[in-house]
Amino acid sequence: MAKRKRRVKSVKSELITKSREAMLSAVQIFNNPNILFKSESFIVLSNIAWMYLLHAYYRTNDIDYRYYKLVNTRKRYDKTKRGAYKYWELERCINEDKCPIDKVTTSNLRFLIGLRHEIEHQMTTRIDDYLSARFQSCCLNFNHYIKKLFGEKYAIDKHLSISLQFSTLNEEQTDQLKEFTDLPKNIATYINDFDEELTHEMYNDIRFSYRVLYVPKSANRKGQADKVIEFIPANSPEAKGLNKEYVLIKEKEKKKHLPSKIVERMREKGFTEFKMHHHTELWKEKDAKNPDKHLGVTVEGAWYWYDNWVGIVEEHCKKNDAKYKE
Question: Where in this chain does the record put each DUF3644 domain (predicted)?
Answer without folding.
Answer: 14-198
